[in-house]
UniProtKB/TrEMBL annotation:
Pfam families: SBP_bac_5
Entries under SUPFAM superfamilies matching the protein: Periplasmic binding protein-like II (SSF53850)
Gene Ontology BP terms: peptide transport
Name of the protein: Peptide/nickel transport system substrate-binding protein
Length: 609
């Protein structure tokens, strides 16, 4: 570099350093002249768009997003809320990564720490689905995620604690809280409403039937469980792999069986009769024995080949048939399912030594973690093997998707305790009991305690336009229960209506604010950390959720895995709110963002181009 250009570089850095120190707003003209000399012709205002659901899709999300937006604006950020339908929101966020910030309820997650692996590991930064939708990459986090997989006891607890400390500092997402799920149920036809967990498919299998008073015909009439809700997607698409149609897998979980089911104590056999682990040089190995005489809803037998096919399909829905235009190998162009990747990634190999036995070879993980891989839906090979071709639009193949990912899968063919009868898109779905299911054999020997064959012959889902309308249908006797949770504003009506019971259950699906860490300025962890300090969870709990939420700061909140110093105790111990009682302290907020490397111009947060 010449002396003259070097001198210019020194002067330019000096000027930029002066600007970064934060000159007085009254020197606006001088600042503009200085920026021109420095090569900064303009300063970009920081602008964020928060995508969330409209009020008719979620009783809290839009209100919460607007409140958070007001706090962003108080800190000088140009922020706006963009309401988007749930199907389109999940498509934009999980498939296309087209967002700055989103606020949604995450899908219900297992409370095992390994659930964080697929959510945050950098190997999934470019993946689609709930696998790292933030595009987040942190080598320390990767190390702790991998360590906890292969560790047990105190070592695993230490790794999980360090993992959560790293996440708390870098804030790829900000947890708001775990809402209470509110439902209305009629007392007349079924029992056990209060203990039934409707966040899980098995919750519908714990209901008891009241024979006396059964509508239309008593003992000889078919019993119908009438469910009403606001989510129309199950009436249009029953593909368990479709991210944009699956925030909840409750209904597809009744249509499809998994090898095992998650419980608070771990994973328990379901479609499997049993499994046994042994150590090998390559990691844990499990031999799974399937229940005998199980069939798909079309009468075909369920075999080990179906299980092996399922795991191959979820790892690559093209089954290795894809090849890049430049001759890349199939492994480089594989099309994994946008769901279940974190769990499928535990499996290195699957063998089928017999029709009722499957041998799984796992990678470097503990047996307890390995059993998470058993909780994916098993699919019939004879139905899904013809869905491995690349999707084509007007004859042009779309390499990032296969037919398995885009089919609506109606009618579905599963092996679960319920089977498909008919659907009317956007209006209704009819299912019926599958009496060939193992739950009907000797009262479901070996299944989870308290879970038995359906207490109803048919399940009918009706779709309405709002929470209030859903409660009205139950109140008028047109349904037995609101299948989707309703907002707190419906509680008074439920409480004063005869024959209605109020069901309130703590959810495992938290509201989170997610950040696109691959888009500036959200690439800056200090900026995300400052954003997290603009969220007052106590205010949101009182003013948005009417108290029907448990404020939280960790996804594992409420479990033994969160160290004491990271737990919510009325405030966030790592990113406390920059204000009091829902009011942002603008001076403190400006200091926080300046410390993160940003500046202010005319009251607006800005960054240089």
């Amino acid at each position: 570099m010449s002396q003259s250009s070097s001198g210019y570089g020194v002067r330019r850095r000096a000027v930029i350093g002066t600007l970064g120190a934060g000159a007085s707003a009254g020197l606006g003209g001088c600042l503009r002249r200085a920026r021109s000399i420095a090569g900064w012709d303009s300063m970009d205002p920081v602008s964020l768009r928060i995508k969330t659901l409209p009020a008719d899709s979620d009783p809290y999300a839009l209100h919460a997003a607007r409140t958070i937006t007001s706090w962003y604006r108080a800190a000088g950020i140009d922020a706006q809320v963009v309401p988007v339908s749930e199907e389109e929101l999940l498509r934009q966020v999980l498939l296309n990564k087209n967002f700055d910030v989103f606020l949604v309820r995450m899908a219900a997650r297992q409370r095992d720490p390994d659930a964080l692996y697929g959510l945050l590991h950098s190997q999934f930064a470019d993946a689609r689905g709930w696998q790292n939708p933030f595009g987040y990459a942190d080598l320390d986090v990767d190390e702790w995620l991998e360590t906890q997989r292969r560790s047990t006891g105190d070592r695993r607890r230490e790794a999980v604690a360090e993992l959560q400390r790293s996440i708390a500092r870098s804030q790829p997402f900000t947890v708001v809280g775990f809402p209470d799920e509110i439902r209305a149920a009629r007392r007349g036809n079924y029992t056990n409403w209060q203990s039934a967990n409707f966040r899980s498919p098995q919750g519908y299998l714990t209901l008891g039937r009241i024979v006396e008073g059964t509508a239309e015909g008593g003992d000889d009439a078919d019993s119908v469980l009438r469910v009403v809700g606001t989510d129309r997607r199950a009436t249009e698409n029953l593909n368990p792999l479709s991210v944009e149609y699956r925030r909840s897998g409750v209904l597809t979980g009744l249509l499809y069986d998994a090898i095992g089911q998650p419980t608070p104590e771990g994973t328990t056999p379901w479609l499997a009769e049993s499994w046994a682990f042994a150590e090998s040089d390559d990691g844990p190995r499990a031999t799974v024995r399937l229940r005998s005489d199980q069939t798909w809803h079309d009468g075909e037998p369920v075999t080990a080949e179906d299980v092996a096919f399922t795991y191959a399909l979820l790892a690559d829905t093209s089954l290795g048939s894809s090849e890049g235009q430049d001759g890349e190998t199939a492994a480089e162009t594989r099309v994994p399912a946008p769901r279940f990747q974190g769990r499928i990634g535990l499996v290195d190999d699957v063998r089928t030594p017999a029709a009722d036995r499957v041998v799984f070879q796992f990678g470097d993980c503990s047996p307890r973690v390995a059993t998470r891989a058993f909780t994916v839906p098993v699919l019939p090979k004879h139905v899904w093997q013809d869905r491995t071709d690349a999707v084509s639009i007007s004859g042009i193949e779309v390499g990032s998707a296969t037919e398995a990912l885009v089919t609506n899968n109606i009618p579905p063919v599963g092996s679960g305790p319920l089977r498909f009868v008919q659907n009317t898109p956007r209006e209704s779905l009819h299912l019926e009991a599958n009496e060939s299911h193992f739950l009907f054999d000797d009262e479901g020997t070996g299944a989870r305690p308290g879970v038995g064959p359906p207490a109803f012959d048919r399940l009918v889902l009706q779709v309405v336009g709002s929470d209030d309308a859903a409660v009205g249908v139950v109140a008028d006797g047109g349904a037995d229960v609101t299948g989707t949770p309703v907002g707190a504003d419906t509680v008074p009506r439920i409480g004063r209506t005869a024959d209605l019971g109020l069901l309130v259950q703590r959810s495992t699906s938290p509201y989170v604010v997610g950040y696109n860490t691959q888009t500036p300025p959200l690439t800056n962890p200090r900026f995300r950390h400052a954003l997290a300090r603009l969220i007052d969870r106590s205010h949101l709990a009182a003013e948005v959720f009417d108290g029907y939420v448990r404020p939280a700061v960790r996804l594992l909140e409420g479990t033994e895995w969160v160290p004491e110093e990271l737990r919510w105790d009325g405030a966030d111990p790592v990113t406390p709110f920059l204000g009091t009682e829902g009011e942002v302290d603008a001076a403190r907020a400006r200091t926080e963002f300046r410390d993160a490397g940003f500046q202010y111009e005319d009251g607006r947060l800005v960054r240089g181009q």
